[in-house]
Specification:
This protein is an alpha+beta fold and 365 residues long. The protein has three domains: 138 residues, Gyrase A, domain 2, CATH 3.30.1360; 83 residues, 2-Layer Sandwich (Alpha-Beta Plaits), CATH 3.30.70; 85 residues, Aminomethyltransferase beta-barrel domains (Elongation Factor Tu (Ef-tu), domain 3, Beta Barrel). It is built from eight helices and 19 strands. The protein has a six-stranded mixed β-sheet with strand order 10-11-12-9-3-13. A six-stranded antiparallel β-barrel has the order 14-17-16-15-18-19. The chain is globular.
């Protein structure tokens, strides 16, 4: 079982640990609800060093990545990034990831922890001559600073240039005298940054950020809050909303699939599924009360039965929320019954995301 390099720091901060993807990771620091509210109103700091990190290099790296990924990499300039997918030959999703262009022959990939070894094997076996892959996960740490005060906190910590960093772009800088890379992205539905540093600098960067953010209400956050935040924001999780039997068509991810860019692994199967139409539809569920739907719960509707993929109680919206796969002809706004602990509980189908920072919680109904 792997543990983060800062485990002792997390334990001293009151972190409660549980197993996830082969790691023992902090789930919360006393109250996931408090952590969710901090991210929505101020800022939270997550240790997400379990996420996989690769460098892909060489004169043929672009050609290799274009064949492996669904998005269109030539659209990127240096320091630019994009969300993308790795698919199998049948069009099923092997993983979702974010990739950044460092230069014409160097790319930085951030992949899911549970898929690190699978991704590394799949990519390595399909590299063209003139391209190489380096796993830099163990040599680096990754922190997610998330919330409306994130940019101000990172500037106060020593990197004022973050104010100019655009969404899905990265910049190099220094905090407390050590090098970091800050990418303006996250997994919470809020503004924020994912910050990479060397493992040996992890404690200094973590404590510097917490100190800089104390006046703004920054708190350390665990994976329980991260899961609530991403469900509220309608962000998919591998093995919940997507897997190797689900194509981007069903998962609602076609925005990041560029069928017109030319050949790539899974392209023909995805195009065929798009022509035929999806077998299921991913949609949001908002419960009428505080009942909490969980993955696997049945959702009964006029169009037939569906299944919850992810569910939680939303502190932001004050009710149970979920994502679910439903029959493709289902309509948003329909009343449904979710079978929670064996009992039907009322809810409504809603367009994803259930929460967005561009609207007040009262507007999310």
């Amino acid at each position: 079982m792997k543990t983060p390099v800062l485990r002792e720091i997390h334990e001293r901060s009151g972190g409660r640990f549980a197993e996830y993807a082969g790691w023992m990771l902090p789930m919360d620091y006393g109250s996931a609800v408090r952590e969710v509210r901090a991210v929505r109103t101020a800022a939270g700091l997550f240790d997400v060093s379990h996420m996989g990190r690769f460098d892909m290099y060489g004169e043929s790296s672009l050609r290799g990545l274009q064949n492996l990924l669904t998005n269109d990499l030539p659209r990127l300039a240096d320091a630019g990034g994009q969300y993308t997918l790795i698919c199998n030959t049948e069009g099923g999703v092997k993983d979702d990831l974010i990739i950044y262009r460092r230069s014409y022959d160097l790319y930085y990939l951030v992949v899911n922890a549970a898929n690190l070894d699978k991704d590394k094997g799949w990519i390595s076996q399909r590299l063209p001559t003139g391209a190489g892959l380096v796993d830099c996960t163990d040599d680096t740490a990754l922190f997610a600073l998330q919330g409306p005060e994130s940019a101000a906190i990172l500037a106060r910590a020593g990197m004022p240039e973050v104010a100019e960093v655009r969404r899905f772009h990265l910049a190099d800088g220094r905090i407390a005298g050590v090098h970091i890379t800050a990418a303006r992205t996250g997994y919470t539905g809020e503004d924020g940054f994912e910050i990479t540093c060397r493992s040996r600098d992890a404690e200094l960067v973590w404590t510097t950020l917490l100190s800089a953010g104390e006046p703004e209400g920054l708190v350390p956050c665990g994976l329980a809050a991260r899961d609530v935040l991403r469900i509220e924001a309608g962000l998919p999780l591998y093995d919940h909303e997507m897997d190797e039997q689900t194509t981007p068509v069903e998962a609602g991810l076609m925005r990041w699939v560029k069928l017109d860019k030319g050949a790539f692994i899974g392209r023909d199967a995805i195009a065929a599924r798009l022509r035929v139409g999806p077998e299921k539809k991913l949609i949001g569920v908002r419960m009428e009360g505080r009942d909490v739907p969980r993955a696997g719960d049945a959702v009964q509707s006029s169009a037939g039965e569906g299944r919850v993929t992810s569910g939680t109680f939303s502190p932001t919206l004050g009710c149970g929320v979920a994502m679910a796969y439903m029959p493709p002809e289902i309509a948003e706004g329909e009343r449904v019954q979710v079978i929670v602990h064996g009992k039907p509980r009322p809810g409504w189908l809603r367009k994803l995301p259930l929460y967005s920072r561009g609207a007040k919680p009262a507007d999310q109904a």
